[in-house]
Amino acid sequence: MKVVAASKIRIVMSAALVAATIVGTAAPSFAKTFAQVHPRRAEVLRRDSNINGRINANYGHLGGHYGQLESEDAAIRSQEQHDAAMNGGYITRGEKRQLNHEENSLNRQITKDEW
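The chain above was modelled as a monomer; its predicted structure follows.
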């Protein structure tokens, strides 16, 4: 009985050592920034943040379209989050292209409505 218990202890200790080694080698990968890990997503989110800033900065100068523009910006952000959730935190090139197209269109609307 003591031999079986000692054998189980060695197995558990070995498993713990392997787990500690895996966690220790994986830790440096967590140090990467969001933009390094998700460059396409970071670009889309940066542009969305800039668009949101433009909308808010021009609140009274958008010809009454502030709510519409905010709503479109929120829809783009929601679509990006949905796409990323469906792909394990990443967005594909095609999704990035589509989101950039929508952001470009929204930027043109903001420029057109500014006075």
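The chain has five helices and no strands.
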